[in-house]
Every structure is written in C-alpha cells, then in structure tokens.
Amino acid sequence: MRLAVDIGGSYLRYKALNSKTKGKISIKNLDIIGFLKGLIEKHKVNKIAVSFAGQVKNSKIISAPNINLKNIDLEKELGVEVILRNDLYCAAIAEAHFFKSNNIVAIYSGTGLGCGAVLDGKPILSDAIYGCEIGHIGYKEAPFRCGCSKNNCLELYASGSGIEKWVEFYNLDNSDLCYLYEIKHKIAEEYLEALSFAVGVAIAIFNPEIVVLGGGIVKRCDFVLNEVRKRAKRYAMPSAFDDLRIEKTQIENGSLEGAKLLLK
Questions:
Q1: Widest distance between CA atoms in the chain
Q2: What is the domain range of residue 138?
C-alpha cells in the first residue's frame, strides 16, 4: 500500500491510495514517528509521501517552527521509501492540478503561514530548505517571538499561532478570527493587512495567474477572501492585477492531496 501523510502544525492527516484508509489526529503530545510506524505496520505500507509544515531536505526533516521534530531522516526511521516535501510545495501542486493552471501560488493561513508556487507547470524550490518561507519575512515587531525565534515575522500577524499570541497578549477569551472581525478588534485588522501584504509580495515576486488562499482560518472565515482581494492591490504593481485571480481553495486538504499526487 502507498500512503500520503500531511503533518501540519495542529493535525496529522493520512490517506491511502486505492483504499478507504484515512484519518486525522491531533499532534499535541503525539509520538509522530511512532504513530507513522504503526500505520506502516498495520496497513503494510511500502511507500509513503509526506507533506511537512517545516523545512525538509530529501527524506530528512530539518526543523519546523510549530512542530517538535528536527534532524530526522524519515526513510531511515520508517524503513520504507519516503517522498518528503514541504506542505505548501504539496499544496501548490494540488491547487495547480485543481485549477488546471501552470502559474499559480498557494498561500495557506492555518497554524502557520506558508507559500508554494508552480511556475511554467513546475513546482519550485524542491531542494531549497528555506525557500518560499513567506511567513518568516520580516514585517514588524511584536511583543513576543515566533516559533522560528524572531519577533517580526509575518506569521505573528497572519496565522492561527500568531492570533493566539495576540489574544493572550490582550487577555481575551476567544481566538476565533470570525469573532474578532465581528467585534472589530484590531487583531482581525492586523491579520487581514498582514495576509494581504503576503499576497502582494507573492504577486510581485512570482506574477502568477492565480493566487489561491487556503488553510483553516481562510476556510472558516468567508470575509477573508474579499478583504484580501481589496487590500492586496496596495502591495504590488497595479498592472500585475489585470489578469490575476485571487481564489479560495476548493480542496479539503491541499497539502494531503499534493502528497497523494507525489505517489502517482
């Protein structure tokens, strides 16, 4: 059996090819390697594709701002053939497949903030450990630090982990962005502006035909798409928007679907 796995900042999801085997489990206090070994043994897996929310190289996990794994060679640990890619690399190829686009950027705002791109029909930066890390571009200083140790990352403003830090800072009791937007709290305004800045930066660098927004926050909060469509125009050349589409993902889990595509 071949198995696709997405290890995100909050959940591990898996789905087998040509089988109904699938699942989702919180990574909080989870022995991720032990869990994967159990899946491999139980389902007689001989090949696995892993989407990982962090820095990877070949079959080795280097580090991750929001996951407690680093310097692990998955192929050696798991004892089967492993294809390992960054989660937004996987999401980008899934979105390109769905939208039938050769020039597309995926920006996902969930636990973290990530970016992946397919240009001229090819996913970029498969061998670049720290490439496309839009969440860790310097933006403006915060009174706390990101998982990468900096205190000025975009991720501190445009991600779930960032929102939770701000909610604690302001001593609020609800970290749901939809609620914060409804009560017009500045956390929501900062989030929308930071995400729009991220989209503008991606447009300025890659000049895609489509930018796809995804991740748990974007999926939950319908207002995000229209707000970003309006605001992003301040952060790139106006002409770059002439034929550009900014869309919301239609895929349940782009990173997992991208991992499945790596197995085909």
A1: 54
A2: 100-251
Q: Which residues contact 61 (CB under 8 A, 6 or more apart)?
A: 52, 54, 55, 69, 70, 71, 72, 74, 84
> How confident is the model at residue 19, as a pLDDT?
87
Q: Is residue 158 part of a domain?
A: yes
**pTM, entire model:** 0.94
Give residue-wise pLDDT tens across range 134-173. 999 999 999 999 999 999 999 999 999 999 999 999 999 9
Residue with tokens 């989407």: 51
Beta-strand pair 60-63/2-7: unpaired
pLDDT in tens, 170-194: 999 999 999 999 999 999 999 999 9
- Is residue 167 a part of any domain in this protein? yes
Residues of the chain with confidence (pLDDT) below 50: none
Q: How far apart are CA 168 and CA 256, in angstroms?
A: 31
Q: What is the dihedral of CA 112, 198, 59, 101, to 10 degrees?
A: 120
How much is the pLDDT for 103? 98
CATH number at residue 188: 3.30.420.40
CA dist., res. 94 & res. 249, Å (int): 10
Are 135 and 241 contacting, i.e. CB atoms less than 8 angstroms apart? no
Provide the H-helix boundaries in the chain: 32-43, 74-78, 87-99, 160-169, 177-182, 186-206, 216-220, 223-231, 254-262
Same domain, 76 and 113: no
Does 174 map to a domain? yes
Contact 112, 159 (CB under 8 A): yes
Q: How far apart are CA 160 and CA 166, in angstroms?
A: 10
